[in-house]
Structures are given as C-alpha cells and as structure tokens.
Amino acid sequence: MNNALILIIEDEPEIAEIIETYFAREGFRVITAGDGPIGLAHHQRLRPDLVVLDIKLPGLDGYEVLAAIRRRGDTPVIMVTALAEDLDKLQALRIGADDYVVKPFNPLEVVARAKAVLRRTMGRGSDQVLRVGPLSVDPQAYVATIDNDTGAVALDLTRTEFRILAHMAASPNRAFERSELVDACLPESEALDRTVDSHVSNLRKKLTAAGGEGLLVGVRGVGYRLDWAHGR
C-alpha cells in the first residue's frame, strides 16, 4: 500500500510541499498539481491510487474536480480545505468524497486518513456476491444490480452509497443505526447522522428507479434496513 501513487491537487505551494513530504517519508509516490485542470489531466494520465484535493482551486474548484473524477471512476478522494461549515462537508460527501480534513491540519493526520481509506479501497478480499431478494451486490467487482422483468439493471452508485448498500446487504433484514453506518462506511470522516440520511435517500431513489421499490426502508427511532421480505 505504501507504494501507492498519491495525487495532491493544491494551489498553495507551501501546503502542497508539506503534504508531499509527509507522504514521501512514508514511502508513497507523489505527484502534485496547482490547479483543477492540471489535476484532472494528471488523474487521467497517471491513474493515482488516491487524490488529496483542495476545494478552492483556480480553473476548476474542488467540487468540479471531484465530480469529474467520480464520472471517470472510483478513485478515493480526501478533501483538504479551509472550509469548515457542515454544508461544505455535506456537499463534498454527496458528490463522493471519501474523507474530509479541515485546515489547519496535522500532516500526519492526512497521511493516516489516506492509509485508512486505502485499506478500505485496496483491501477488499471478499468475492462473495451478496443477494437480498432482487438485489445483488458484488463487493469485489463493485457492482450492484436489481433484477426486474426486463433483466438485471445496474445501479449507478457513488462510492459511499455502494459501501452503505454492501454493508447492509451482508446482514439483510437487520436494522442499522445511523451511527453504525457512519462507523462502518465513513469511519475516518466527520460525517453526521444527517449525512447518512442524505446518502440513504439518494440510494433509495436509485433502488426504486431500478425496480427495487420498498427494498430499503426506514426503522423509526433506529435507522434503516434492507427488507428481505420485500424481495422474496
């Protein structure tokens, strides 16, 4: 894992250099970019294992860069920014950020969080396909589908939505508390319970659109569950 390639997209040279130095000390390979367009060009050409991304960038801001990265695939992204408002965090997480660090920060914390994200994204070893009624989730292939009258419909999920769905699919018909979903699916972030509500709301809409209406249900006073009875 420590040989992974880290792309740092940060327009303040001093901060970029500090982050680069700490990652290099841990044995990571590092490439930097000073604005959004160059960062996206590096991402497309070099295919980094993880991106450390500032929000306030020239050319394209961090939200636009993150959205473009998500359209291309599932490269893990940690947002590093001076913005500390909950709405900014929610926006980044909704688009698909894996974690969020607020300036001023300890560079060692950024590296630690990157290692944790890489463990989650590079260390998946289960090849078992999880099935809950019409839903199939393949953690290894990172694919989720709903079987309906027209065949299997692939779900277009963000990384966080997929993690939540896969975690719940491993224990169908069990009620999960919001805090548990935060710990299991966003353990190093500062995510709030309402962040989970937002991800689950989007996930439920996508399941319903694919023919899985009623599969993901709320449990009053607790959280959510995948309703096994619905799929039988």
What do you see in this structure?
It is built from nine helices and twelve strands. The protein is an alpha/beta fold. It folds into two domains: about 5-120, Rossmann fold, CATH 3.40.50.2300; about 130-230, Winged helix-like DNA-binding domain superfamily/Winged helix DNA-binding domain (Arc Repressor Mutant, subunit A), CATH 1.10.10.10. The strands form three sheets. The chain has a five-stranded parallel sheet with strand order 2-1-3-4-5, with helices on both faces. It has a four-stranded antiparallel sheet with strand order 6-7-8-9, with helices on one face. Strands 10-12-11 form a three-stranded antiparallel sheet. Helix 1 (about 15-25) crosses helix 5, helix 6 packs across helix 8 (about 195-210) and helix 7 crosses helix 8. The model has no long low-confidence stretch (mean pLDDT about 85).
Topology:
Blueprint: E1 5-9, H1 13-25, E2 29-33, H2 36-46, E3 50-53, H3 62-72, E4 77-81, H4 86-95, E5 99-102, H5 107-122, E6 130-132, E7 135-138, E8 143-148, E9 151-154, H6 159-169, E10 176-177, H7 178-185, H8 193-209, E11 216-219, E12 223-226, H9 228-231
Helix pairs in contact: 1-5, 2-3, 6-8, 7-8
Number of strands: 12
Low-confidence stretches: none
Total count of domains: 2
Total of DSSP H or I helical runs spanning 4+ residues: 9
- The global form is elongated
* CATH third-tier fold name of the largest domain: Rossmann fold
Largest sheet: 5 strands, parallel
Query: What CATH architecture of the largest domain do you see?
Result: 3-Layer(aba) Sandwich
Mean pLDDT: 85
- Structural class, by secondary structure, is alpha/beta
Query: How many angstroms does the end-to-end distance come to?
Result: 41 Å
Using the coordinates above, name the CATH class of the largest domain: Alpha Beta
User: From the alpha-carbon coordinates, what is the Rg to the nearest angstrom?
Assistant: 18 Å
Q: Walk across the major sheet and give the strand order.
A: 2-1-3-4-5
User: So, the CATH homologous superfamily of the largest domain?
Assistant: Response regulator
Give the topology string: H per helix, E per strand: EHEHEHEHEHEEEEHEHHEEH
